Amino acid sequence: MQRKERFEKFLDYFSTHSPEPETELVYSNPYELLVAVSLSAQCTDKRVNLTTPALFNRYPDAASLAKATSDEVFHYIRSISYPNNKAKHLVGMAQMLMKDFNGEVPDTVEDLVKLPGVGRKTANVIASVIWQQPTMAVDTHVYRVSRRIGLVPQTATTPLAVEKQLMKYIPTALVHKAHHWLILHGRYTCLARTPKCEVCPVTEICMWYSKNKKKLVN
DNA sequence: ATCCCGAGGG
DNA sequence: CCCTCTGGAT
Q: Where along this sequence does the record place binding of [4Fe-4S] cluster (predicted)?
């Protein structure tokens, strides 16, 4: 099966069964999503959502967060992965927002990646979810699922390479949704260690499944 | 032991 | 390219 056909069937299935996928991070404005996504590295969304209410209550905007010390912020995010790094990044991020962006979240990937703690993945999420731009953020789920199914060549061994390969085949209008479909599929079905092939709706197009199904049946 | 919507630094 | 950061869940 060609990649184009895999894409078409993958997109068809989820268009029908998950027509309006959205992030599971809880937020109410661009600033909050930027903070939440920055916190989400190597951490579950559930854990982030347990942490952000108190954080947003104490620091409701970039102005208040910019005046905080990293030690103060650390207190609020200590149950998150890498709390020291993230606390420093958040304060630095807020200070740059105030200094260079009038306290607002930038609307280009180019500007977003200038912020401390914001790399290409986070910038792509903000550009896509907040600013409705057709950017594909490649996180651990998107990377694993794309390669396992065979949506991208096995030679795509970096997040950037996977991003470019996905962008070649996904219609612009579906990039935002496809990002969430790949994440949700990875989070709940195509698990990293033991993918749940027995309940997977897209085994028909899956390269990994076609190679391993004999072992799975026995 | 391995993984979770990574980023920065060497 | 590598390494480190670093808590919670399974």
A: 190, 197, 200, 206
Question: Stated in angstroms, how far is A41 CA from C4 C1'?
Answer: 14
Name the pTM for this structure.
0.93
Q: Does A186 contact strand C, using a CB cutoff of 7 Å?
A: no
Q: Is A12 a catalytic residue?
A: no
Domains of chain A (ranges plus CATH)?
A: 3-21+137-217 (1.10.1670.10), 30-129 (1.10.340.30)
What is the pLDDT tens value at each position of chain A, 218 positions in all?
Answer: 899 999 999 999 999 999 999 999 999 999 999 999 999 999 999 999 999 999 999 999 999 999 999 999 999 999 999 999 999 999 999 999 999 999 999 999 999 999 999 999 999 999 999 999 999 999 999 999 999 999 999 999 999 999 999 999 999 999 999 999 999 999 999 999 999 999 999 999 999 999 987 565 54
Q: Which of residues 126-165 of A touch strand C (CB under 7 A)?
A: 157-158
- Give A136's contacts (C-beta < 8 A, 6+ positions apart): A124, A128, A142, A163, A166, A167, A170, A175, A178, A179
In this complex, the answer to whether residue A42 has its CB under 7 A from any atom of chain C, a nucleic strand, is yes
